[in-house]
């Protein structure tokens, strides 16, 4: 693999759009179709809720040429799993559609927050539409505390997801990297497979996996 080269700051927080008050976080890149880079990120509004937006980056001149004037995805309705934030984590293309996997945020009472994994789909040049009002990867006996930070690849009809799973809240929130599979990107099967576990008692936050296939290897 070629050596990485830093380009410097591309998008400051907040970006210069009306819907963003703070932050430009959890970035990930995709092609824009015109030779430029489409950089997706999440910013927060005046209530601290995350929305997903993008910046178009001219790599030759290392400059942002355009921002999304409206969010690609905003928080869900009151009481839903993402009513306090929709934070993008991964985008994959399949059959002409774009699947945006995102982190849905709720505020907690006994703990500060809950997160679950959601999915929204865009066909053509339309808007992203949630596949469900419920998360596609919610809390279960396998992941009893929270799920977050999904990364998805499609291989030979199998959708592969790496995600962070919470394991406790005491003395602080702890999470490691787990794995799930799907046939359609919406219904996921998981058996508690842990991909990266804590190295020692001092580790507590293993998250934000980004995976690429390199020959016969997966690199995270």
Write the SSE topology.
Blueprint: E1 22-31, E2 37-44, E3 50-58, E4 63-67, E5 86-94, E6 97-107, E7 113-123, E8 129-130, E9 147-155, E10 158-168, E11 174-182, E12 188-189, E13 194-196, E14 212-214, E15 217-219
Antiparallel strand pairs: 1-2, 2-3, 3-4, 5-6, 6-7, 7-8, 9-10, 10-11, 11-12, 11-13, 14-15
Q: How is this structure best described in words?
A:
The chain has 220 residues and is mainly β. It folds into two domains: 8-72, no CATH class; 74-214, Tachylectin-2, Chain A. Helices cover 0% and strands 48% of the residues. It is built from no helices and 15 strands. The protein has strands spanning 22-31, 37-44, 50-58, 63-67, 86-94, 97-107, 113-123, 129-130, 147-155, 158-168, 174-182, 188-189, 194-196, 212-214, 217-219. Strands 9, 10, 11, 12 and 13 form a five-stranded antiparallel beta sheet that branches. It has a four-stranded antiparallel beta sheet with strand order 1-2-3-4, with no helix packed on it. A hairpin with a 2-residue loop joins strand 14 and strand 15. It is globular and about 45 Å long. The mean pLDDT is 95.
Distance between the termini: 13 Å
Q: How would you sum up the global shape? A: globular
Helix content: under 10%
Runs in which pLDDT lies below 50 for 5 or more consecutive residues are none
Class by SSE composition: mainly beta
What is the radius of gyration computed over CA atoms, rounded to a whole number of angstroms?
17 Å
Secondary structure tally, helices: 0
| Sequence of secondary-structure elements | EEEEEEEEEEEEEEE
CATH class of the largest domain: Mainly Beta
CATH topology tier name of the largest domain: Tachylectin-2, Chain A
CATH superfamily of the largest domain: Glycosyl hydrolase domain, family 43
How many structural domains?
2
Percent strand equals over 45%
CATH architecture annotation of the largest domain: 5 Propeller
Average residue-wise pLDDT: 95
Report the biggest beta sheet as strand number plus sense, adding barrel if it closes: 5 strands, antiparallel
**DSSP summary, beta strand count:** 15
């Amino acid at each position: 693999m070629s050596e990485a080269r830093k380009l410097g700051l591309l998008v400051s927080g907040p970006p210069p759009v009306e819907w963003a008050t703070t932050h430009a976080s959890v970035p990930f890149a995709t092609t824009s179709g015109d030779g430029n880079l489409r950089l997706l990120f999440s910013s927060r509004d005046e209530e601290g809720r995350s929305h997903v937006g993008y910046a178009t980056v001219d790599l030759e001149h290392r400059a942002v040429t355009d921002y999304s004037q409206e969010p690609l995805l905003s928080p869900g309705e009151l009481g839903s799993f993402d009513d306090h934030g929709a934070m993008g984590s991964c985008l994959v293309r399949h059959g002409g559609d774009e699947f945006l996997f995102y982190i849905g945020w709720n505020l907690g009472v006994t703990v500060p927050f809950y997160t679950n994994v959601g999915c929204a789909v865009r066909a053509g040049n339309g808007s992203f539409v949630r596949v469900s009002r419920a998360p596609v990867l919610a809390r279960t006996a396998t992941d009893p505390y929270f799920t977050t930070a999904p990364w998805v690849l499609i291989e030979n009809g199998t959708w592969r997801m790496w995600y962070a799973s919470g394991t406790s809240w005491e003395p602080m929130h702890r999470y490691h990297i787990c794995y799930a599979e799907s046939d359609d990107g919406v219904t996921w099967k998981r058996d508690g497979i842990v991909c990266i576990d804590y190295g020692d008692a001092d580790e507590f936050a293993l998250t934000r996996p980004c995976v690429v296939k390199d020959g016969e290897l997966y690199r995270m």
